[in-house]
Specification:
By secondary structure, the chain is an alpha+beta fold. It contains 15 helices and 26 strands. Strands 4, 5, 6, 7, 8, 9, 10, 11, 12 and 13 form a ten-stranded mixed beta sheet that branches. A seven-stranded mixed beta sheet has the order 17-21-22-26-25-24-23. Helix 9 crosses helix 10.
């Protein structure tokens, strides 16, 4: 969860009031934030990532002004045309194709507000940019640079410049292999190929996005004018990040100016826009969701406290309310998001829980009923249930069982021990038998649970099924014992018509393995485990195993 440090003196200056620490805490809680830390001169607030406009103190102050009725309605920010242009070249189109920019004039910084700005920047990188992948932001002192600017791709082995934190010039490739920021974010570019670059009209380097800025544009306490670039692979994320950051500057009273961006396909955009979006909210839907019989006037009041605007058209339509949504509210995706803000303004603590008039009796899902029935059957046969991990190691899941497969793999596994979703329960049961070696025999254990397979025909490209598996280990376990257990299970499940046919499987002993056929479809397998598998799991006694696809019965 993102956290923002709010000095009381700083937010009071932005709000224009002298709030006490307790009042600030109360308003923060009402806005849905949690107090992470409280001290004499301020608080640390933890907020939901779906409100990235809270990433700056100015953005949070804007919300406090609304909930406290100090200033309500749609914030109005003036935009001026800077006359500055950024030309995007085709060479960057397959690297990091999107860029939007802005200029902020007459800013004033000290050490604390610079640190605050850097925190805001990094929070946007994380919340919207997915750690700079979708969007990264560059903030530059304009004192030593001049437009027009150029955004283009360069060979990573050329165009050396002086990056932040260094005393000698480095090429992009050197930055990616030697500089701390370069090492951390090198995976977002191709250090062996073309990388994005932003330069001014004199070819002075502003930035090597999304990695690092140049020393030339370092923001200091002497900075008065800012040039801001947002570059990325997702045009919506680029726009959202720039709108949120620049609206925060505008909220502080600084002058925001637009920049014209010219793309190689002839498209020209002017950014930022501060353009409001108009939505219609159904009054009856508000009552349906919240259970509150609010009038249109009351709904409008709560929306204004949430810093939305109310269109004049709303007065003519009693069933719907026309709402102007500011560009920094990128979290509004559905009517229910607006209703959530109404609830926040109204106060969740003022709502009384109401029991539904309709009496509904819950019922267990058929799949869970089937699983529980399997548990009862196996327990009656003397098996003990175990619950194994659904995520397993690809290495031992296949290698030790003498098999191969195409499993559902995790993109970024925390550990190699949990890097695939299992497609069989037997390997996990064998692993448990290995851990149970110190205990006496016989041992009979079973598991009933989820497995997953790749299925490109489905929307998710995967299928999830319920398997029932069991293993028996003792000195005399054989095919006959496993056959009797399987037949007892099928009978208890109400399956009277089935066939047991000879089968071959790498994990089972040749000639001592059979498949279970129901309605001419294979629904399971059983037999004696292969000696090599036993050796792989360091088991000295024979093991019998079965696996049944219970949902296919």
């Amino acid at each position: 969860m993102p956290v923002i440090d709010i000095p009381l003196k700083r937010i009071n200056k932005l709000i224009g009031r002298d709030l006490t620490l307790d009042e600030l805490e109360e308003y923060s809680l009402q806005l849905g934030a949690d107090i992470d830390d409280k001290r004499e001169d301020g608080i640390k607030v933890e907020y939901n990532p779906n409100r990235p406009d809270y990433c700056s103190i100015a953005g949070f102050a804007r919300a406090v002004k609304g909930i406290a009725d100090f200033e309500i309605g749609l914030p109005k920010y003036a935009l001026k045309n800077s006359g500055v242009t950024v030309k995007v070249e085709k060479s960057v189109s397959k690297v990091r194709p999107y860029i939007q920019c802005a200029i902020v004039r007459n800013v004033s910084f000290d050490a604390d507000t610079i640190a605050e700005l850097m925190n805001t920047q990094e929070t946007l990188h994380w919340v919207i940019g997915r750690d700079r992948k979708k969007v990264s932001i560059g903030i530059h002192d304009m004192r030593d640079i001049q437009g027009p600017y150029r955004y283009f791709g360069v060979d990573a082995n050329t165009h050396a410049f002086l990056p932040l934190g260094e005393e000698t010039e480095m090429t992009p490739k050197q930055i990616c292999t030697e500089h701390p920021k370069g090492i951390k974010y090198a995976h977002l570019v191709n250090p062996e190929g073309v990388v994005p670059f932003l330069v001014d009209k004199n070819d002075d380097v502003l930035s090597f996005p999304p990695i690092i800025n140049g020393v030339l544009t370092l923001v200091t306490e002497k900075t008065t004018d800012l040039f801001i670039d947002a570059t990325g692979t997702d045009v919506k994320a680029v726009k959202n990040a720039l709108e949120i950051l620049t609206s925060s500057f505008a909220e502080e009273g600084y002058q925001v100016e637009t920049v014209t961006v010219e793309y190689p396909d002839g498209k020209i955009i002017v950014t930022p826009t501060f353009t409001n979006v108009t939505w219609s909210l159904r009054q009856k839907y508000v009552k349906e969701i919240l259970g509150l019989d609010l009038t249109n006037a009351e709904i409008e009041k709560h929306l204004k406290r949430s810093r939305f605007g109310i269109s004049k058209a709303a007065a003519k339509d009693k069933q719907n309310i026309s709402i102007d949504i500011p560009s920094f509210r990128v979290d509004i995706l559905h009517e229910v998001d607006l209703i959530e803000d109404i609830a926040i303004s109204y106060g969740y603590h003022l709502m009384e829980p109401i029991l539904d008039d309709i009496v509904q009796v819950g019922e267990q899902h058929p799949v869970f009923k089937l699983q529980n029935k399997c548990r009862d059957i196996l327990s009656g046969l003397g098996f003990i249930e175990v619950v194994s991990w659904t995520l397993v190691s690809k290495d031992w899941h296949y290698k030790k069982m003498r098999t191969s497969g195409n499993p559902v793999e995790l993109l970024n596994p925390v550990s190699r021990e949990f890097n695939i979703f299992r497609d069989s329960l037997i390997p996990s049961l064998m692993n448990i038998l290995q851990k149970n070696k110190p205990f006496s025999l016989p041992q009979k254990i079973f598991d009933v649970g989820d497995i997953s397979h790749i299925d490109e025909k489905l929307e998710t490209s995967t299928t999830r099924e319920i398997y029932l598996s069991g293993v028996i280990i003792h000195s005399k376990v054989d095919f006959v014992e496993m056959k009797s257990n399987v037949e007892a299970i099928l009978k208890a499940l109400g399956i009277s018509k089935y066939k047991l046919e000879t089968a071959e499987h790498p994990s089972f002993f040749e000639g001592r393995c059979a498949k279970i056929m129901v309605k001419n479809k294979k629904v399971g397998i059983f037999g004696e485990i292969h000696p090599e598998v036993l050796n792989n799991f360091e088991l000295e006694n024979p093991v019998g195993a079965f696996e049944i696809e219970v949902e296919k019965l």
